[in-house]
């Protein structure tokens, strides 16, 4: 029986049509061009003054409203000692309440441009932000939407792999985190008794950090293999077999087959050139 969960992954062609293209002006169409002005007519003083005002506005001035001091953004003074600060649960934000259910992503290779990523984000129904480190943040209003997008991967943007994963708690947006990526793994001929979430979770924990099983595994509608989504460290050798003892006392050496394994360079911590 075909695996229904793999139907929407692999290409980006469905999203490209949503990309907004910047208009290209001819000389006669260009705003404020001399060609659009009657011959011999010069700019008025008011027009010149407006142009001068635009030129003298500083970059910081464009965001001056962001720096207004209001009651809601005031900070308090705390008594602190000379040692490292300790932040407790009451000192930190619940990011989910502010941003929603987030995935973080990274483009393996040359960045394709913000318009393309915005188009992808809109097609997913998510909001989008970019961190200066290169990490991308996709925020969803519902957990099921986040899980669906993660499960439908991997995604390629103009042939470049988009690595996606749940945003970890206290995520620091470091380059070292790039090697941790979710992959689908299949467990061929796994005994049906072992399709319990606990058994799959324990097997997945030997492989990496288990995230979920696919819907056909959950419903037991494709009995040839179980399929699980696991976050693995691509900088290390992937586990290809898990040995465990079943309730009947028989030891089984379970093969683990990965549907897609991104090639990670351990020397320069990049995916794009292998």
Automatic annotation (TrEMBL):
Residue ranges with Basic and acidic residues bias: 39-48
Residues of the DUF4283 domain: 98-174
Residue segments, region Disordered: 23-52
Family annotation (InterPro entries): At4g02000-like, DUF4283
Compositional bias segments (type: Polar residues): 23-36
Domain of life where this protein originates: Eukaryota
Protein name: Uncharacterized protein LOC105155259
Protein species of origin: Sesamum indicum
């Amino acid at each position: 029986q075909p695996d229904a969960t793999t139907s929407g992954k692999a290409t980006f062609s469905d999203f490209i049509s949503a990309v907004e293209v910047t208009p290209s002006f001819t000389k006669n169409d260009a705003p404020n061009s001399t060609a659009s002005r009657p011959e011999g007519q010069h700019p008025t003083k008011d027009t010149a003054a407006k142009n001068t005002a635009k030129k003298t506005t500083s970059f910081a001035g464009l965001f001056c409203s962001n720096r207004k001091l209001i009651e809601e953004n005031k900070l308090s003074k705390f008594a602190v000692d000379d040692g490292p600060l300790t932040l407790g649960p009451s000192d930190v934000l619940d990011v989910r309440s502010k941003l929603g259910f987030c995935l973080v992503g990274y483009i393996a290779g040359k960045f394709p441009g913000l318009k393309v990523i915005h188009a992808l984000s809109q097609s997913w129904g998510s909001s989008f932000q970019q961190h200066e480190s290169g990490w991308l943040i996709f925020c969803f209003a519902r957990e099921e939407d986040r899980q669906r997008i993660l499960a439908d991967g991997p995604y390629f943007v103009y042939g470049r792999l988009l690595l996606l994963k749940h945003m970890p708690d206290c995520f620091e947006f470091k380059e070292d985190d790039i090697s941790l990526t979710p992959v689908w793994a299949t467990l061929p001929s796994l005994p049906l008794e072992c399709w319990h979430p606990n058994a799959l979770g324990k097997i997945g924990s030997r492989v990496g950090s288990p995230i979920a099983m696919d819907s056909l595994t959950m419903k037991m509608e494709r009995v040839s293999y179980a399929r699980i989504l696991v976050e693995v460290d691509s900088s290390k050798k992937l586990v290809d077999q898990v040995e465990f003892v079943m309730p009947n006392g028989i030891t089984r050496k379970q093969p683990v087959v990965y549907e897609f394994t991104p090639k990670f360079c351990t020397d320069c911590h990049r995916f794009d050139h292998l």
